[in-house]
DUF4133 domain-containing protein (Pedobacter lithocola), 111 residues
Amino acid sequence: MASVYKINKGVSKPIVFKGLKAQYIAYLAVGLVFLLVLFAAFYIMRTSLFILLPVILLLGFGLFFTVFKLSHKFGEHGLMKFFAKRGIPRYIRFNSRRLFISLKGGHDERG
């Protein structure tokens, strides 16, 4: 009796939703939850809705624009690589040769 197995062809592909790739979906979700909490906090403090709604809508538009721009510019892993590259120092400064001498084994190889 022959068995039929389904092959999942999208195993190694990143998650994509409406053009957003991988972690940018989470960034957008966290940003939207933050805007919801911000709206609730200012609404509880009795801020006028004529001021609050345009501010929240502008912040939401900015969030969408920024996240989509980052997603298209950097791709799946590019943003992490960008921040990692910024963390690498341009040069390393040593005040002593002791580190390099100890790497040789701490003894003189001449004799």
Notes: Residues 49-74 form the longest helix (26 residues).
